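Entry:
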Amino acid sequence: MSKFEKYLALWVALCMAIGVALSQTLPGISQAIDSWQIHGISIPIGICLFLMMYPAMLNLQLAELKKLKSNPKPIMMTLFSNWVVAPLVAAGLAYLFLRGNDQLIIAVILLGSSPCTAMVLIWGKLAEGNQEQNIINTSLNTITIMVLYVPIVALLTGIQSIPLDRGLLAISAFVFIGFPLLLGITSKRVLIGAKGEAWFESAYRPAVGKVAIVALLATLIVLFSLNGQVLLENFDQLLLVSVPLLLGFVIVVGFNLLITRASGLEYREAITTVIIGSSSHFEIAIAAAVAMYGVGSFAALGTTMGLFWEVPIMLGLVSLGKALRKRGFWRG
């Protein structure tokens, strides 16, 4: 992990500030960016989100799924956390704290219902977790998110009959997950066949990973330059949506810490389970919010706040895991 990646939380905050500053000092740039649209979807945002998603799809390794039967317990626990605990906690807290703010409720549900498939590889490496388990889990999440994401979001928003364009949500899932997934599988096969697996792993994937981080930061600048005025006029809304987001992290992380201890996992498997089970796929959440409600919406800003909080929280979780290991929290 490079020094630049270690300070990702700082760069995220800086890019958000740059975006807001641009919206106030050069509003013409924001208007120009906002004019590049196709059927209401921002072309710059679409490109950036695609560049964020594609590298994550290169993590898919179907051959690794064969190893699932050798040690299924931590994988099953993570799936339960990702697809049952996290979505229910997110929906419950959203309805409790954000009543009357439908777009913010949807933002929290979009985040809580999307298990991570990319950044967890970095967090797992920093925490010295089981990276083989990490790869199996991220590969499995890549597949399950294609099947479960839209139905779960639709189910949870339907509890309070919040209007949701399910067709547009499904299209977003295909465009920002399905298409990058197909391209990832195809390009991986072609490049390995042409250049060899060693070149693919040592040269291509690291280079594409750097592009993804740049695309992430560019997305933040564009989003906040387009929404700077909305943000400044409704700053209280972002503080409000932060309450269920932060409480959700505390509850889900706490659940995963306790369940991994109670099940007798060793540290390397336990910390990987906690990290994957507690993180979210903010890229697809942002993409879906932008597609359904536009870049100037509270839904888009709400999902972006999920990214803002997740980076420092995951780094904190890495440190917490190492501290608990020294205290013998997971006895194995």
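The CA atoms of residues 130 and 166 lie 37 Å apart.
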